[in-house]
Design goal:
Oligomer: single chain
Strand content: 15-25%
Largest sheet: 5 strands, antiparallel
Structural class: alpha+beta
Low-confidence stretches: none
Order of helices and strands: HEEEHEE
Number of strands: 5
Mean pLDDT: 96
Length: about 110
């Protein structure tokens, strides 16, 4: 855990953030500035700065992120209508918080 990392603090229960899902490896919560009717953040508890900092040791974490995304899409009712999964990587790619996280966005009416 990095003490000044907001996602480390959230994932380790140091804020009043409501988790939609939690297990030993990750947490899921709503984005406070949503870009879609359903906008969730899937965040590993282990601090990994960015996609660029992934190593072979992180393979299982990535699997956990994607499986949680699949399950949360179903729970939120966007699995059939469709949803978007997004990693922002580094400042030029839109990353604002430097703790790996996966955005799940959906729920648009088409």
């Amino acid at each position: 855990m990095t003490q000044d990392c907001i996602f480390c603090n959230i994932a380790n229960g140091k804020t009043d953030t409501e988790f939609l899902y939690e297990d030993d490896h990750l947490v899921v919560f709503r984005d406070i500035k949503p870009h879609a009717p359903v906008h969730l953040l899937i965040v590993p508890k282990r601090h990994i700065r960015s996609v660029n900092d992934l190593t072979d040791d992180h393979r299982s974490i990535l699997g956990d992120l994607f499986m949680a995304a699949r399950d949360m899409a179903k729970k939120e009712g966007v699995d059939r209508s469709g949803y978007k999964l997004l990693f922002n990587v580094e400042k030029g790619g839109g990353q604002v918080i430097f703790h790996l996280h996966l955005h799940l966005m959906g729920g648009w009416k088409r």
